[in-house]
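pasting for the record
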Amino acid sequence: MSEIGRRIKALRQRSGLTQEELADRSSLSERSLRDLELGRVKKPRAKSIRLIASALELSADETRQLLGLIVDETPEPPAMPPPVRQLDQLPLDDKHFTGRFAELRDLDLLISERPSTRIVTISAIGGSGKTALAIHWAHGAAGHFPDGRLYVDLRGFTPDQEPLDPAEALGRILTALEIKPADQPPTLEERATLYRSVVAGRRLLVILDNAATADQVRPLLPGSPSCATIVTSRERLPGLMVREGAHPLLLDAMTESEAGELLRTVLGNTRVDEDRTAAAEIISLCGRLPLALRVAGASISLGDYRTLRQAADELGSADRLERLSLPGDPTSSVLPAFELSFARLPGHLKEFFGRLGLLPGSVFRTNAAASLTAISAELADQRLQRLVALNLVQSRADGRFALHDLVKLFAQRCAAVDEAVLRRVLDYYLQSADEANRQLRPTRVRSPIDPALDGVIVEEFATADAALRWSTDELPAIADAVEVAAAANLSAPAIQLPTSMIDFFHLRKHWPVWLATHETALEVARRIGDREHEGILLSGMGIAYLELGRIDEATKYQETAALIAREGDHRFPLARALTALGILAMHRADYAAAVEHFAECERLAAEDQDPYGAMLAVFNTAYAHLWAENFDDARALFEKALPMGEALGAADVIGGSINALALILQADGQLEPALDRFRQSAAVAEQNDNLIGLAEARGNIAQTLVALNRPAEARAVFLAALEAAEQLGDKRLQADLQADLDALLAAGTVP
């Protein structure tokens, strides 16, 4: 055991931490910490020692003493005689390197006691810091490779240069290994054989940087298990994983904290602390890409921007990729880095990639890409997988795909403006949203949408749960699609998308998106004079304001919606507005007005032979009588609404009717029967993923348990109700449930 190893172990034991706990706190691998304590690492990196000192909360003096031990360590004797001269071809380590702790731990497997592989491939889009990561790790792991470190730039993606021929690369390696050019065989195969013979048994690290293909790399791989190899490439090189057992390390954008630390390293803490908001915007605008952050930092340091705010504002302009590129230095610029990857694509993939830039949002499904290009889903998936292999597109665990923000900007530069293409992708979201919301409430009468365009592949949903998942996942893209459609003067998707999502909005209270999409659509409807959709959108906004408790605003919107519907004889929009006005009247305790509004809805439904509208009219009238405490009338109407809901499969009406009948039993003092009914209502809501119905039913169960003097059970059910309300995001309901729970706990009856 070395002196520094003994000291670290003693300090760890003094703190009462296990190796596993200290490794977790310090972001080091447990294996690395164990090697340190056992003395297997004779020259640990200063950064590792600082991480350990921070995790152990050492004083400044103790940290300095610990760091001082690094230079006092005696080098580990090599396993075999070293080469005649020290072989070290590593480029200079980046003094600004920061973060990437998880990736550095992944690379540590190369120096583990029993490595599962001696080859690691680091792949990512240009500008992600692949080379910097490999070189930084290699400098820190120098003690593990006493026979030297080889570095070869294979020029796979270098501006104005062809990829390095493997035979030439081997020639350079053999020369570095002191094999004179005159003694090197002429053929690739012979050179590869000689190379493997020379390095056999040596403890060498080989970095093959910027590889183009697996075939370029294979002849350069040492065959000896004592050697380790790191390959960096913009390609994922799956062939090396299959045949050579390479471990893939896919380098993503930096985390927020890592990106922030990098910006501080480049600019200094004082400069960043002057305007942290602008610094955060710069990090976001750079897509947390190391190269982009370095270019932005260099431009700020050189005085191109007076303040961080000016830098953030100018980076937010349309020419962001240009601003993140340095004139005359393509290897240190974001735009040329992307252009090199794009240039290697065949023509059909260039067109496909460019069109991906037109997609709303940054995460998408195969059918969206297929609709964009009017090809089959199978062909779209093949093309996407090829772009994934090139790291131009990211593959997600949920089966969707993603574009890095800066890559999406680049894709938009590569796409020709084509309204037909944009119409198709917007129609994909419109048609799929309509289909999903039909699955959520199959029997509801809906606002019609235009037929699907040719080439659009609409998502299909076997269950309401699948429809709900799609709607949740795609909500950011749908919100973006409404803005894109409005900006492109494509009125149909801009107006119809928000109204197609109304059932989802009812179930999941995403009020900011609900209101923002409706407001954008309303502007479009008014611009083109579409009065019917203007009324529908006003009513939809009124419902949102009602649920937010903003009664006056909700009333204004619904009254305007009803007026527009009456003027245009828009019967379905009128029924919706009248229903909302009835509910608003109930909130004002004007139950007679509410019943009058619902009665008009029932007449409209009868005239239009609309069973769903008729059911809602009965259901809502029943609630008006319940709130007015006309329990006999309410019971009769709920008993009428319940079979109507069952016949139509309207789960919210079924659950709501059962819940209301339980409330009537509770008011009559029949607590046990009421408890059974509340539980039935909760089961219906849970089965149909109706969070608001579930939260309300559980709250009623808990209140009934309180009345039955069963406080411990009531507490558990209140907590379950709060969980549903939190998942729903309904702050008012959460506050009401929390107040009821607090009252129960304050009573002191809960054991």
